[in-house]
Design goal:
By secondary structure, the protein is of the alpha/beta class. 51% of the residues lie in helices and 16% in strands.
């Protein structure tokens, strides 16, 4: 059984965490499979958007505690590096990543969910820190992501008090873009992914990169990165098509080039 199911529909690569009987825990094997699948999507010229979700009633139940408490410090360091590499792959992927949170996202599953670019949540979805209850610290960049998304005190309150965040609250906080009925999540997420895939892929990838630079870098570094990115964007066929479509007052037909 593949721990990460991969399916390409048109220009969208759907990656599905596939260990539903155990609620898709982030084991070492699943982490490696997911990292490999994300990297492969980034290398596929057909793929212009990635959609990440989980199979069953949970998105991801967090780290696989059945194995983690037996690891040596060196093994923990290796596992952390491998897991952290997933969020780095998502961050540097040159196409948008849509995350469809289909149920509970706990611990590292919370971190993985909010690492995406556009997040949709089922009404039954819940984001659960869970680190405090096992004596661990938040990982996979969760503190960094939450801090720049919802601010210092909200991040502190949620993580220190181990406060679950239901879908409606996540929407209010700005952690997710949409909340949809459970039965509609898959179709709605695919529609959003297809809309992104139909866009000017190079420009969207550059925009994604600049957003992250803006969140972490100084203004002068950002402006330099912005100028460089715009130079690349202006050289694409999509830019020429966009300008031509604007002048002709028609809908642009982007090719991702």
């Amino acid at each position: 059984m593949a721990l990460v199911e991969t399916a390409v529909h048109g220009e969208v690569s759907t990656l599905t965490l596939n260990d539903p009987d155990r609620r898709n825990p982030l084991s070492e094997a699943l982490a490696l499979s997911l990292r490999t699948a994300i990297a492969a999507a980034g290398r596929d010229p057909q793929v212009r958007c990635v959609l990440l979700t989980g199979k069953g009633d949970a998105f991801c139940a967090g780290g696989d505690l059945a194995a983690l408490d037996t690891l040596s410090p060196a093994e923990v360091a290796r596992f952390m590096a491998q897991s952290q590499a997933i969020t780095q792959e998502i961050a540097t992927l040159p196409v948008p990543v849509v995350v469809a949170i289909n149920g509970a996202a706990a611990g590292a599953g919370f971190s993985l969910a909010v690492a995406g670019d556009v997040l949709l949540a089922a009404q039954s979805a819940v984001l659960i820190p869970a680190f405090r209850r096992v004596g661990a610290v938040p990982d996979l960049g969760l503190i960094h992501t939450l801090h720049r998304t919802i601010g210092l005190h909200r991040t502190t309150d949620i993580l220190l008090r181990d406060k679950p965040i239901d879908a409606a609250t996540a929407l209010q906080l700005g952690l997710v873009s949409e909340v949809v009925p459970d039965t509609d999540l898959a179709d709605r997420a695919m529609k959003v992914a297809e809309d992104l895939a139909a866009g000017p892929t190079v420009a969207l990838g550059l925009t994604k990169k600049l957003i992250r630079v803006a969140a972490t870098g100084a203004s002068d570094a950002f402006l330099m990165a912005e100028a460089s990115a715009q130079g690349i964007a202006f050289s694409t066929a999509d830019f020429l098509e966009g300008v031509a479509a604007f002048r002709a007052q028609r809908r642009p037909r982007f090719k991702g080039k």
